[in-house]
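Class, look over these structure tokens:
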Amino acid sequence: MEIIKPLVILIAGFIILIKSSDIFVDAISSIATNFKMSKMMIALTVAAFGTCAPELAISFSSVAGGNGDIALANVVGSNVVNILFIVGVAACVSPIRVKSSVIKKELPILLVVTSVFVLSIVFHYFDSLSVGNLLNRVDGVLFFLFFLVFMVYIVLVVKTKQGFFERSKPKYNMTQSIIITIVCCICIVVASEIVVDNAILLAQKIDVSTKLITMTIIAIGTSLPEMTMTVIAAKRGEFDIALGNIIGTNIFNIGIVLGLPLIIYGGFGSLNFNIIDMLAVHIAAFTLYMFAKNDKVLSRLEGSIMICMFLIYYTYIFLT
């Protein structure tokens, strides 16, 4: 019975967090539309930022509270969930055709950013006993710089494309958008505090690590916005947007969700993270690239394989 209260509060926090993020996306999309931004730019920047808002709020909340492992576990878990599970499910729902430009540009950028993240962890892993952290402020600056490169690419290359999020007019006027954005930001921050505090409490009650809770309940929960957006885009035949949302979100997760707290608060991350966790992140990105490059289609079979890989990794997490 002791776990009921934190579990119920945790679920309530998730509901507030996800709903606030959903409305937040609409509000900032309206602001962007009022400023005449390209709809594809909105999809790959505003939408990606909006869907990773829960991860960002949880990251800052956990690091500020001295629980940096939660921030790192959330990014690792979310990036694996986004690719292996969400893209896998989307491909099973509707085989995803991948444009050559995505294979030649967006996916390689994701691979490079993911590789830099993984190599940074591996590099620090062996001297973390003396340094005390798996990541430091320099890593944060590096991650953020790669994020800026991605943003420059979007502005220069995809600013003229149209797509899934096109609207004849913004959902809210400018005044409404600003007010709603502020209110949603407050709700997201408060909800993230609720989620982090009760995730830690729940882990203590059932005697498991916060890493396990974060990489399962929190990572999957905060990835629900990506799941909704990606599956809907795939069903509508907007395959580049389905992948673009995941690519953008995963790069945001590394560059912003990890990068900014590292820059502001300094180093964090402990030896609870091993090489297997890092390999899972890299293998997920590499698998997506190879499947997409193979025949420019993510088939139902390949989607099923990705889901199986996800289940294997999460079985490993539970067993260890």
